[in-house]
Write a structure and sequence with these properties.
- The protein is an alpha+beta fold.
- The chain has a single domain, classed as 3-Layer(aba) Sandwich (Glutaredoxin).
- 37% of the residues lie in helices and 23% in strands.
- It has five helices and nine strands, in the order αβββββαβαβαββα.
- Strand 6, helix 3 and strand 7 form a beta-alpha-beta unit.
Length: 166
C-alpha cells in the first residue's frame, strides 16, 4: 500500500470519528499562497469579513463529502459578506487534480495551493478536512477537525456572521 493510500485510509477512518471543535480564540495566522490561476493571495486581504478557511485534499474521502456542503453554504452566505477559502494540501505538482476536483464540485470560492509551513501555522492540520471559522476582526472563533455535518457547519458560519457585526 502506498504512503498516500495509507494516509488517505487513516484520514478516512479518523476523520469521520474525530469531529470536534476548539473554541480558544487567537488571531488567524496570515499567509500568502498561490491560487489555481497563479495569483498570489493573502489572508489579510480578506480582513474585515468573516472567513471560512477549509484545509482539504482531493484524496480525502471526508473532504469529498463536505465540499458540496461548503459550496451550498457559500451560495447562502456570500451575500452576508462571508468569504470561503479552500486550501488544498495535495502534493506539489497536483494542480490539475485540484482543478479537476474544483470543476467536479463547481467550487465558486477561492482555492489556494497550500504548503506545509501554512498548515503548521494552523496547528499542523493532521486530519482533514480541518476548518477554521474566522471573525471579521481576524480571530479564530471555532475550528473543526474531521467531517461534522452540514447543520453544524452552517451553525458555525452563522456564528461568525453574528460575532462579526459591529
Amino acid at each position: 500500500m502506498t504512503r498516500r493510500r495509507l494516509l488517505a485510509t487513516l484520514l478516512l477512518l479518523c476523520g469521520a470519528c474525530t469531529a470536534g471543535s476548539n473554541t480558544r480564540r487567537r488571531t488567524a495566522p496570515d499567509f500568502t499562497l498561490p491560487s489555481l490561476d497563479g495569483k498570489m493571495v493573502t489572508l489579510a486581504q480578506f480582513r474585515g469579513r468573516p472567513i471560512v478557511l477549509n484545509f482539504w485534499a482531493t484524496w480525502c474521502a471526508p473532504c469529498n463529502v463536505e465540499t458540496p456542503w461548503l459550496v451550498q453554504l457559500d451560495a447562502a452566505y456570500r451575500s452576508k459578506g462571508v468569504e470561503f477559502i479552500g486550501v488544498s494540501l495535495d502534493d506539489a505538482g497536483e494542480q490539475q487534480r485540484v482543478a479537476d476536483f474544483v470543476r467536479k464540485y463547481r467550487v465558486p470560492y477561492s482555492i489556494l495551493l497550500g504548503t506545509p509551513p501554512v498548515a503548521d501555522a494552523y496547528g499542523g492540520v493532521r486530519l482533514m478536512p480541518q476548518t477554521f471559522f474566522i471573525a471579521a476582526d481576524g480571530t479564530i472563533v471555532r475550528s473543526t477537525i474531521g467531517i461534522t455535518n452540514n447543520a453544524d457547519l452552517e451553525a458555525a458560519v452563522r456564528n461568525i456572521v453574528t460575532v462579526s457585526r459591529p
